[in-house]
Amino acid sequence: MAGYGGAIKNISIGLASSMGKVRIHSGGTSDTHWHDELHTEFLESMAEAGKGIADYLGDRIVYINVMNRISIDCDCDGYPEEPDIHDIGILASTDPVALDQACIDLVWEAEGNESLLARINELDGLHTLEHAAEIGLGSRIYTLVDIQNP
What we know:
Blueprint: H1 7-12, H2 18-25, H3 39-57, E1 63-67, E2 89-93, H4 96-109, H5 114-122, H6 126-134
Antiparallel strand pairs: 1-2
């Protein structure tokens, strides 16, 4: 539903209780039922839940995205599509928005990215990053540093 999985999705949905997962998926409107028609609200709820986690943990958290064997399907899917994008690398940051933006930018350049880009665009996946930046979760501006070849 998010278009892609990254740090923001992992800290919001990944750390939420069962009821919290439903609340996020319902765009903050229910504790018992998902509401697929509230897609924009869902994307914004992920950013807002992520901000709650980030605010609580402050500087006691580092976000890490492993970009390996990337499929268009969520890891919660029991029968995901085979990966179209193989190994891009491991990225880390103290800013989850910058981290997810850097990962998206690398996906844009990756070989075999067609199905994932179509999914991101179809589901307006970048809206989560836009909203996260608007509410102060982080910044979409980043500097990519290669620690293997500094």
